[in-house]
Design goal:
Strand content: 5-15%
CATH topology of the largest domain: Aspartate Aminotransferase, domain 2
Number of domains: 2
Shape: globular
Radius of gyration: 22 Å
Strand order of the largest sheet: 2-8-7-6-5-3-4
Helix content: 25-40%
Distance between the termini: 34 Å
Number of helices: 12
CATH architecture of the largest domain: 3-Layer(aba) Sandwich
CATH class of the largest domain: Alpha Beta
Oligomer: single chain
Number of strands: 12
CATH superfamily of the largest domain: Type I PLP-dependent aspartate aminotransferase-like (Major domain)
Order of helices and strands: HEHHEHEHEHEHEEEHHHEHEEEH
Structural class: alpha/beta
């Protein structure tokens, strides 16, 4: 093992479910490490010991998670808010915009439903919604465009658009760029400053190996200044920590992104997320991406030997840990179900068998998948 290379076998030992399953389905749900489950247990033990009398310190711990997330995506902690899931983040962002009739929202074709449903809700206000191919996105982003929203990695086929190029296109048109990182944060090295995202959000239950309900939203400070909160609660006023004398009247919002949170946070989920995010930081995002992408590359090599059709081989920008494969004449849903009977977990999305490699996978997992496919006559 190269010097400073993480001990991936020890990392794998953090995940009890892998003793039974060949798990190649992180694009649906990530597995939680033991340290994250332990963090939740410690939180509940502390609740019992102190009867929640220290509840304000839980918010301090949440701020420590903001700092860890800031390191993970290269953002100031104050620009990060916690959300329950990605659709809540996108809804808040879109509802914070002062829409005008004739405005346009642009996304890519075959996007995750969140990025279709939310924009369509503004049609009654005269906002146009456009779904386009990557090849024609430059035509779709016109001066009328207010927002371009899309996933960093497409959930069906692993398409990974060049965000820096897209950011320049959007900003040249005067539009904002909102990026859903649910299928990438935790697997890929993220730098929101490098591609100048105006907002970046992710639900942590996939590649960030955190529980459902643990999500975050980064909002560029210059955008936050003019993006009004659409969820308002007792923590919306800037002096909310003065719980003995809460403000009564119209809230004065803080400058920080926590103004978007409104109320109490899902602390058990956030304690688990903190443990998972800190694990990524210990391993380093660069080492994790190298490991994950290396396994994805090996997987593609083996799938080609079986005659699989891979979007990766047909078009650029499919270099992600989400590998889509099509076996002509074979139904992906049937293949995935048969693999499950053999202890190999994948998923089927539209015409593709979807296979996802993460830091807890290894070469033996790929070998078991290929053996399973061969046993099905593929």
């Amino acid at each position: 093992m190269p010097v400073n290379e993480p001990d991936w076998r020890a990392v794998r030992g953090e995940f009890p479910s892998l003793a039974r399953w060949t798990y190649l389905n992180t694009a649906t749900f990530g597995q939680m490490p033991r340290r994250s489950m332990d963090a939740v247990a410690r939180h509940h033990e502390r609740r019992n010991e102190l009867a929640c009398s220290d509840f304000l310190t839980w918010f301090d711990d949440a701020d420590a998670l903001r700092a860890s997330l800031g390191r993970l995506i290269n953002a100031e902690p104050s620009s990060i808010a916690f959300v329950g899931n990605a659709c809540s983040a996108l809804s808040m962002l879109l509802n914070g915009i002062d829409w005008r009739r004739g405005d346009r929202i642009v996304t890519l074709e075959n996007e995750f439903p969140n990025n279709i449903y939310s924009p369509l809700m503004f049609a009654t206000a005269g906002v146009e919604f456009v779904e386009t191919s990557w090849e024609r996105i430059a035509e779709a982003v016109t001066p009328a465009t207010r927002v371009v929203v899309l996933s960093e990695v497409n959930y069906t086929n692993g398409f990974r658009p060049p965000l820096a190029e897209l950011s320049r296109l959007a900003h040249d048109a005067g539009a904002l760029l909102f990026v859903d990182g649910t299928q990438s944060a935790g697997a890929l090295k993220i730098d929101v400053q490098a591609f100048e995202a105006d907002a970046y959000f992710a639900h942590g239950y996939k590649w960030l190996l955190s529980p459902p309900g643990s999500g975050f939203m980064y909002v560029r400070p210059s955008v936050s200044e003019r993006l009004r909160p659409s969820v308002v609660g007792w923590r919306s006023h800037k002096t909310w920590r003065n719980v003995d004398n809460l403000h009564h009247g119209a809230p004065e919002f803080a400058a920080e992104a926590e103004k978007y949170e409104g109320g109490v946070l899902p602390f058990p989920a956030l304690y688990a997320m903190k443990a998972s995010v800190d694990m990524f930081l210990e391993l380093t995002p660069g080492a994790v991406e190298k490991r994950v992408q290396g396994l994805a590359g090996l997987l593609r090599e083996e799938l080609r030997k079986l005659g699989a059709r891979l979007p990766y081989d047909e078009s650029p920008h499919f270099d992600s840990p989400l590998v889509a494969a099509c076996f002509p004449g074979r139904e992906p849903k049937t293949i995935s179900a048969a693999l499950k009977e053999r202890g190999v977990l994948t998923s089927a999305r539209h015409e593709y068998l979807r296979i996802a490699t993460h830091l807890y996978n290894d070469e033996e997992d790929i070998a078991r998948l290929i053996a399973g496919l061969r046993s099905l006559g593929i």
